[in-house]
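haha ok so turns out i had the wrong file open the whole time. this is the CORRECT one, sorry everyone. sequence first:
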Amino acid sequence: MKIQESAENYLETILILSQRQPAVRSIDIATEMGFSKPSVSVAMKHLREADHITVDEDGHIKLTPSGLAIAAKIYERHTLISDVLVQLGVDPKVAAEDACRIEHVISSESFDAIKKHTKHA
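then structure:
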């Protein structure tokens, strides 16, 4: 099932935050993404209903297996595309911004070809 680009961004952010800190809360996501807490709360509700995250009684957010799979896929695409663009001479900030857009629309076939070509397979 294809999910919205915004949902992919939220899941990727949860993954990144969970690698940096012991617990992830809505306020952490809002701060990281520059969004309002109410916007993040609505998004977390949708992700919870889609079974991509769980939220415990302390408000700690964790990725479910499906959420982790989506987040890991998007994060891999982001890092590899960003790295390739930097190697081609693109400014790292521009490369990261472009990778953030490309990661959501590139086909699996094209991404796999890039991975193979850059020996990241």
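The chain has a mean pLDDT of 93.
again sry for the mixup
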